[in-house]
Amino acid sequence: MKVTAPDSREYVVRRRVWPWRRKVRTPEGMDLPSFDFGDLDEFGILGTILLVIGLILAVPVIVVLVIMLSEMLLLLLLLPLVWIGRVAFRRPWPVDVSLDGTVVHREKVVGWRASGARARVLALALAKGSHLGQAR
Questions:
Q1: Which residue ranges does UniProt annotate as crossing the membrane (predicted)?
Q2: Per-residue pLDDT for 62 more than 80?
Q3: C-alpha span between 95 and 23 (Å, rounded)
Q4: Which residue of 18, 68, 105, 135 is 20 to 30 Å from 34, comparing CA positions?
Q5: What is residue 24's predicted lDDT score, i.e. its pLDDT?
Q6: Is 21's pLDDT higher than 70?
């Protein structure tokens, strides 16, 4: 949940579901150039060359997309196992408070309901202007 503190800073308070943090990378140079050839009536040799170049450029993009989708599918398949493990072994749920994408406060709370309640208490405290301390 997003909370705006009295000093107008916007915090994000959330309970982390994944026990790990996904590393999201933006590949550099992925912007493909766009070509405008106007009114070309014939495809010809120039069109064939451009088609081959386009396919060569598209293959790596397709491979990356397939890998990303496979990773997401694997994570979605593992999610129920992670939840069952957390409940069965009474592992704590991390509750994070972030400011501009950086975790400024973290607490580990045992129990799904208790961690949700703690996230709401932290959000209310931030909205009132309380200082939570540094990340743990």
A1: 43-66, 73-89
A2: yes
A3: 19
A4: 68
A5: 52
A6: no
Helix residue ranges per DSSP H, 8-136: 44-88, 112-128
Total domains in the fold of the chain: 1
And the tokens for 135?
A: 């990340």
Enclosing domain of residue 11: 2-17+42-128
Question: Does residue 130 surpass a pLDDT of 90?
Answer: no
Short-list 128, 91, 121, 111, CA closest to 7: 128
pTM of the model: 0.56
pLDDT of 7 reads: 87
Residues β-bridged to residue 96: 14, 106
pLDDT value at residue 68:
95
Residue 60 is assigned to a structural domain of this protein: yes
- Asked if residue 117 is part of any domain, the answer here is yes
Distances (CA, A) of 94 to 10, 22, 24, 54: 20, 15, 20, 45
90 in a domain, yes or no? yes
Burial grade of 59 (CB within 10 A; 0-12, 13-18, 19 or more): exposed
